[in-house]
Specification:
The strands form 3 sheets. Strands 3, 5, 6, 7, 8, 15 and 16 form a 7-stranded mixed beta sheet that branches. The protein is α/β, with parallel strands linked by helices. The protein contains 9 helices and 16 strands. It folds into 2 domains: 7-128 and 307-336, Alpha-Beta Complex (Quinone Oxidoreductase, Chain A, domain 1); 132-282, Rossmann fold, CATH 3.40.50.720. 25% of the residues lie in helices and 26% in strands. Helix 2 (132-144) crosses helix 3 (161-172), helix 2 packs across helix 8 and helix 5 crosses helix 6 (229-238).
């Protein structure tokens, strides 16, 4: 057996951020690499995911997922290759999806990993379009928002990993109009020319409410919310009667230190008989088989497209996370390890 490395690097949370995370809040440390115990595997990570929900895990507050622990390695989705195994069904060279990202090497019980096929899709896709990101879009649109053919759909943060998939899935399933918001003119162009959105706007170019009404003169039926704040307020104003919103994220306020100002027009939900429902992907794993079947087919046919923003090197992992919070990415933000 090839000799195992003696150590690898991992990102630790060392302080709770107040507002925007800063370099002093984290540390990249060298940690020992140990041989796997019985029933366990050792992985060399090839890619790990950075995601908006991780900002909430940096706070010591009760939430749907446990906060990161201080002076411990952070975690999150990752995909890598087995370099040592003492578990039946896992061999050296197998590719495995698991939850111990933010580090170069991960050792864990084999039942906590899922083998993936690198011949079907690039390995990084299992962190995005074929992973929890894609399932979030799929479940949030078709189950939570009860999408139906002919709906007018508005997606905020539409050039991101989830939003870009939501818009395309709605179009593939017969939406009458798909509208997206993004934070740059370049991303707006990507939405309309790359992903097939019917209309898109740069939310920095004017009030979201005004731009949405111009893009959706007949109102909207479904809103997929990745942003919150003024986007949700605009959607409430533009909703048709019996509109449905999937509340997936609120990145506009993740780093805020003051309570959000809005939405100020929530009373519209009464007269319009709106349904505003939060969603977590963990509630929808029963859809995974159908999701993979549908999305794999759309990818194979070229009907569904995706982008990734890949940042090279574990030493740049925290910068990648900050870039995600700033909206620097187009599609899924991935950290690719090159050691």
């Amino acid at each position: 057996m090839t000799a195992l490395p003696e150590s690898g690097r991992a990102w630790y949370l060392v302080a709770r951020p107040h507002g925007w995370p800063e370099p002093a809040d984290v540390a990249l440390r060298e940690v020992p690499v140990t041989e796997p115990g019985e029933g366990r595997i050792l992985i060399r990570n090839l890619h790990f995911s950075v995601d908006p929900y991780m900002r909430g895990r940096m706070n010591d507050v009760k939430s749907y997922t446990a906060p990161f622990r201080l002076d411990q390695p952070m975690d999150g989705g990752a995909v890598g290759v087995v370099i040592a195994s003492r578990a039946e069904g896992f061999a050296v060279g197998d590719h495995v999806l698991h939850g111990l990202g933010w580090r170069e090497y991960a050792e864990f019980p084999a039942e906590h990993g899922t083998k993936v096929d690198a011949s079907l899709a690039p390995l990084s896709a299992y962190l995005g379009v074929l992973g929890m990101t894609g399932l979030t879009a799929y479940a949030g649109l078709f189950r939570t928002a009860s999408f139906k053919e002919g709906d007018v759909v508005f997606v905020s943060g539409a050039a991101g990993a989830v939003g870009s998939q939501v818009g395309q899935m709605a179009r593939l399933k017969g939406a009458s109009r798909v509208i997206g918001s993004a934070g740059s003119d370049e991303k707006v162009k990507l939405l309309t020319e790359g992903y097939g959105f019917d209309a898109a706007f740069n939310y920095k170019n004017g009030p979201v409410r005004d731009q949405l009404k111009e893009a959706a003169p007949d109102g909207i039926d479904v809103y997929f919310d990745n942003v919150g704040g003024d986007h949700l307020e605009a959607a409430l104003s533009s909703f048709n009667v019996h509109g449905r919103a999937t509340l997936c994220g609120a990145i506009a306020q993740y780093n805020s230190t003051e309570p959000p100002a809005g939405p100020r027009n929530l009373a519209l939900a009464i007269g319009k008989r709106l349904r505003l429902q939060g969603m977590l992907v963990g509630d929808h794993f029963d859809l995974k088989e159908q999701f993979v079947e549908d999305v794999a087919g759309w990818l194979a046919s070229g009907e569904l497209k995706y982008n990734e923003t890949s940042v090279k090197g574990i030493e740049n992992g925290f910068d990648a996370f900050l870039g995600l919070l700033r909206g620097d990415n187009a599609g899924k933000m991935i950290v690719t390890l090159d050691r």
